[in-house]
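Sync notes, pocket subgroup
Present: LS, DG
LS reminded everyone that the earlier model was apo-only. Rerun requested with magnesium ion included. Inputs:
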Amino acid sequence: MKFGFDIDDTLLNLREHAFRVYNVKLNRQVGIEVFQALKTIPIHDAFGLSAEEGKELWNLHRDEIYYSAPPFDQAVEVLQELDRQGHEIYYVTARTAVHCARTKDALVIAGFPVHEERFYCGMADAEKVHILRKLDLDYYFDDKPAVLETLSELDMRVYAKDNPYNTHLDLPRIVNWSELLEIANNSWQGLSDDSMTIE
Ligand SMILES: [Mg+2]
C-alpha cells in the first residue's frame, strides 16, 4: 500500500515545540494548558501578540523550530514498521523550497524511512491535491483543514492527525500513531479477503 504523510503537526510536533521555544525566547512561562486550549494554527495569541508580531517571531526562529521539532510519539517507529512490511511511504510537505533538502536530511536523522523519490516539498497548500492525485496513494494523513478540505474527491483514504483546530472536520482521525499499524493490518486483510470496502 502507498501511505502519504504531511510533516509539520502530522509527524513532527511543531506547534507545541514552537510554543516552548517562544517561551524561552520571550522569557515567559505561559502554561502548556494555554497552548492546549488554542483553536488556531498560529500560536501568537497565547503570548498576547498580534498576528504581525507573531509572524515576525516565527520568521526569526523558524529555522531553529523546524530542525529541532521532535516527532510525535510512535511516529518514527510506526513508519519504520510500515517500511519493513513493504509499504511505500511518501512525504508531502509545503515547507518552502529553500528548506526541502535540510528537511529531508532531518527526517533521515530522526529515523524516518525516506526514499529519495518519495519526498515532495515546496508546493502551496492548494497544490497538494494535484500531487496527491498523481501519486495515487491509498492513504494520506494531514492536520491542516485548508488541505484536508480539498481532498474529498480523491479516491484515497484521508485521515486527520487530531489537533484542536481540526476537530470540526468529519474525517477519521489519528490521535496516536500506534493506531496506524492496525489500520494497515486491516487493509492487508481486506485485500486478501478480496474485500475493498472496509472503512
Ligand atoms: Mg501540517
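DG: The radius of gyration is 17 Å.
LS: The pocket of magnesium ion is lined by residues 6, 8-10, 142-144 (CB under 6 Å).
Action: DG to write up.
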